[in-house]
Each structure stands twice: as structure tokens, then as C-alpha cells.
Amino acid sequence: MSPQPTPSPISLVPPLLDPIIALVVAANIIWTGVRLLHETGLGLLDTALPKEDLDHINAILDDYRAQGMLFHALRSRQAGSRRFVSFHVLVPGTWTVWKGHSMCEAIELALRQALPETTVFTHLEPREDPTSFADQALDRVPEPEDPSETAPALEERPWKHETIRQDSLGTERT
Ligand SMILES: [Zn+2]
Predict the structure, then answer these.
(1) Which of 21, 84, 93, 152 sits CB 3.0–4.6 Å from 126 for a disulfide?
(2) What are phi and psi of 31, to 5 degrees?
């Protein structure tokens, strides 16, 4: 009696399973490729943070808005796993540098704790100064060269008077 031939492992696989597995593997390769292209493309485009993150940031800033602070020029960027967030912090001009800086530190800490791997930049400015609101665009609009047009703004900025006093060498202009 001749021995039974042992079937090869390949012949054990049902005929349809092989092409199905091949299709699944091909689909997975295509999906991975598309995902990598998408993520790389977003990196090249310097994408902003997703809406959930921005909503989270705004919810935290709301706590400080309730304390009389304003915020503008909020910008964000995702670079790999790291988030970058920058914005201007407008506080009452009567606050000391110490108090304004402490508030910026507190806000930055709250954001870092809420969103890990976040780098926060803040720019402190007095909310009563018109120039605080003139710097919200990416490219700052240059101030007019005619001094008569800047005079009203200078009147509202006491530290500019200090500059004028030093520059004019005794000429009383304040
Ligand atoms: Zn500003």
C-alpha cells in the first residue's frame, strides 16, 4: 500500500481567502500611505490646532476675561506632537509689571497643564492704549509719519512723554 501524499500547506487555504487577504493588506498599505501623506502635508502647511484644543484654550481664557482682562491675536500651530500658542494679554494700565507678569505666568501655566506639550507665548499690553489694538494683524501697519497724527496717541502714553523729555533736552513738551 502506497503512503498517502501529505497535502501542501498552500492547498489547505480555501481558494478565495488568499485574494481576500491580499486585498486587505493592499488596503492597509494604501490607508497608511494616505495617512502619512496627510500628516506630512499638514506639517508643511503649519496647521493650526484643532477646534477642540482652541475651544479648551478659550474656556480657560474666559476665567481671566471675568477678571477684567482681554485677549486677542490668538495664534496656534501644531508641529508634530508639540503645540505652539501665542496671544496678547490686555490688562488695566494701572497694574504693576509684577502683577501683569504674574497673571501671564498663571495663564501660561493653566494652558500647559490643560494641554500637554504646549509652548505658550504671551505679549502683555495695557487695554487703554489704542496701539494695543493696532497689532493684531500678522504684519503691523506702520504708524503715520506726520507727528500731528501721532500726537493724540502720545498724549495717552505716559512712557512716551519720558522719551520726549530725554530727546528734547530740556524742551518742555509734556
Ligand atoms: Zn495687541
Answers:
(1) 93
(2) -60, -45
